[in-house]
Amino acid sequence: AFIGDSITMGLRNYNYKYNLLGKATFLCQGSYSVNHAVNNSMYITYRGEDRKPQNALADCGAKKVFILLGMNDIGLHGVEKTIENWGKFIANLREKCPDIEIYIQSGTPIYTAGQIGGLNNARMDEYNEKLKAFAEENSCHFIDIATALKDENGGLAAEYASDAYVHLTFPACNLWIQLLKNYVGQ
Q1: How far, in whole angstroms, is CA 136 from its chain's centroid?
Q2: CA distances in angstroms from 136 to 54, 127, 131, 141, 184, listed in the order given
Q3: 8-state DSSP, 164
Q4: Do 167 and 174 contact (CB within 8 A), yes or no?
Q5: pTM of the prediction?
Q6: DSSP 20
């Protein structure tokens, strides 16, 4: 299963077209955040119902979950608060799905000209460093997808930016899937 925001929705759309992830379940919502997940201020839709992510995950029966969240958090709540919320989020998932294998994916870079205030590549890099440490401290896998998507300036490469902001092109989604498959050995 995949939990995420509009960036993961792009991966879902790519998978619907090319079916490279088989029957993966996508539990994603535009503008979704770690803050939403822990404060129940926004839900994800699963089988036509608004659900808490841990409940949808339990009901779909996935053995592995790949999570990409944080883009909608770091500009509003900062890096430290976002990492703190990750702790609550992972605890909620493990309470409902104690045997699930958790893969935390790095946040993706931002197209350099699309950086806005606190939503910038320097902050995203800081977030990814702390997220990697969090994953290691909490027995989660960490998958760096950001590095492969960056240009020489550390921003989202033009060929991977569908909107000159944060959303990904289909070639970026293909690269992302290859990184995931390489990481899990498939």
Answers
A1: 17
A2: 21, 14, 9, 7, 16
A3: S
A4: no
A5: 0.97
A6: S
The position carrying tokens 């503008």 is 31
Distance CA 86, CA 92 (A): 10
The secondary structure of residue 161, as a DSSP letter, is: B
With tokens 């104690």, the residue in question is 98
Phi, psi (rounded to 5 degrees) for 136:
-65, -40
Kindly state the tokens that stand for 80. 């430290």
- Angle, vertex CA 13, rays to CA 7 and CA 19, nearest 5: 125
DSSP-derived secondary structure letter, 159: G
Cα dihedral value 135, 91, 102, 176, nearest 10? -70
- Separation CA 170–CA 52 (nearest Å): 29
pLDDT truncated to tens, each residue of the chain (186 aa)? 999 999 999 999 999 999 999 899 999 999 999 999 999 999 999 999 999 999 999 999 999 999 999 999 999 999 999 999 999 999 999 999 999 999 999 999 999 999 999 999 999 999 999 999 999 999 999 999 999 999 999 999 999 999 999 999 999 999 999 999 999 986
The pair of three-digit structure tokens given for residue 147, joined into one six-digit string: 């590095």
Residue 78: burial class (beta carbons within 10 Å; 0-12, 13-18, 19+)? middle
